[in-house]
């Protein structure tokens, strides 16, 4: 429950009241782009303001979410993971109930579709016939290709060649859906480089092309638009929490790559002061530079891909190399609103290592019969750890951002003998 500050003369500005007209989330965000893109971003901002009042637009999106995506996704009581947390609490009468918000059940297997459908509908409103996207794990590429197929748009997807190797099946999926996959061989050949190439394309194609950015990153108004389309997760969760246990949860945990599944889950809760919000970054192999992808934990403010936010960088401001076992978290930047929430003390950010995530991947598979995405496994690892230290009558919700089918080959390679149940028990 929120306690209104009874004696404060003017109500404090709500933490949800961002960004401002310049696209600022406190000190973060903004529009650091070449001149060629300013007009396109302005057009996007204006259209977005206009569709706020456009009932037909939201009716169409809600209908697609229902009949095509399968929303609302369930809020599911994870009895096996709850038992595991209670065992870890070692008889101390602790161990919160763990609930999973099942974004793994959304069409295409992750939350990404919530954003791509919304933006593809906006592209049509602007009269653009082609969409482009960048992709890391391939999930955003598949979700973009899916939205394009559904709405009859042309689709080109930029993807680092290292990610193409790691996520072969998603590459095939995109092609089957009618998209062209463009391999990016620059830099570390991962998400950051694919994003650079997509932005370059857009500079020369804005007249007929809309760039669907895959997370709450990039120049204004993208972080706001993606957050709003993803907020369907948090709005549903709020209603479901009231239905299932009659109050707000004590804690919500989500993994943070660019930060879209976390922002979509957290945003409807940021003004609910009793709800602890926890973002989990990729701790990788260690906290040494180049061995992780945790800008909120180890980065400094800087400009990457059009906005100011925490970024992993060297002394000269060059973007650092990153590592994570999960392609979707392998990004040196993070959405500006997360930087704002971090500095405002509203969201706690922590990190889980590759090994912790891989262990939690098996917990979720064996305790629940749900193979989670490696990205989501980071949130599961942190959730079990936290639940074990919380009272038994508390409720903790994990955003299970995606399913793990795309990861089974990579996880098996990393787990080795541990995949075999008889070896690990
Ligand atoms: C892309 C992806 C992520 C990371 O992206 P965010 O923008 O941080 O949500 C997390 N989980 C899954 C399943 C993904 O596909």
Describe the structure.
The chain is an alpha/beta fold and 425 residues long. It has 2 domains: 69-109 and 231-419, 3-Layer(aba) Sandwich (Rossmann fold); 113-213, Rossmann fold (3-Layer(aba) Sandwich). 43% of the residues lie in helices and 17% in strands. The chain has 17 helices and 14 strands. The strands form 4 sheets. It has a 6-stranded mixed β-sheet with strand order 3-4-14-9-10-13, sandwiched between helices. A 4-stranded parallel β-sheet has the order 7-6-5-8, sandwiched between helices. The protein has a two-stranded antiparallel sheet with strand order 1-2. The longest helix has 17 residues, at 35-51. The structure holds pyridoxal-5'-phosphate. Pyridoxal-5'-phosphate is lined by residues 110, 112, 137, 139-140, 215, 255-262, 328-329, 373, 375-376, 401-402.
Give keywords.
single chain, 425 residues, alpha/beta, Rossmann fold, 2 domains, six-stranded mixed β-sheet, four-stranded parallel β-sheet, 17 helices, globular, binds pyridoxal-5'-phosphate
Task: Please write out the topology.
Blueprint lengths: L23 E2 L2 E2 L5 H17 L3 H15 L5 E3 L1 H10 L8 E6 L9 H14 L4 E6 L3 H13 L2 E7 H6 L1 H9 L3 E5 L6 H15 L3 E3 L10 H9 L1 H14 L5 E5 L4 H7 L9 E9 L10 H4 L1 E5 L2 E5 L24 H8 L3 E7 H15 L5 H15 L6 E6 L7 H8 L5 H4 L1
Parallel strand pairs: 4-14, 5-6, 5-8, 6-7, 9-10, 9-14, 10-13
Antiparallel strand pairs: 1-2, 3-4, 11-12
Bound molecules: pyridoxal-5'-phosphate (PLP).
